[in-house]
Amino acid sequence: MTDPKPSLRKPFGVLLLILLIALYALAAVAVAEPVTRLPALVQLPVWVALGIAWVFPARPLVRWIETGRFRK
Question: Cβ contacts of residue 10 below 8 Å, gap of 6+?
Fold first, then answer.
């Protein structure tokens, strides 16, 4: 049995994922100032939503890293 040719898809995809998370973190920091002026009970759902929202754009990228396709 021969080994398949190694692909650069996984290292390239991981670098893209790190870049995506870094850009998302910068965007979250940009909205931090206005959000911190809100009452604490309003801040909580905003921060929870921002903490979870990065997963949705990352999912197709992770799928591409694993399968080579963006869609199922």
Answer: 65
Structure tokens at 36: 């911190």
Structure tokens that stand for 14 in this block: 């991981």
Longest dimension (CA), the chain: 63
Q: How far apart are CA 32 and CA 44, in angstroms?
A: 12
- pTM for the complete prediction? 0.74
Location of structure tokens 């909580």: 44
Q: What integer best gives the mean pLDDT of the chain?
A: 88
17 neighbors 55 (Cβ within 8 angstroms):
no
Ranges of H-type helices in 4-54: 9-30, 32-36, 40-53
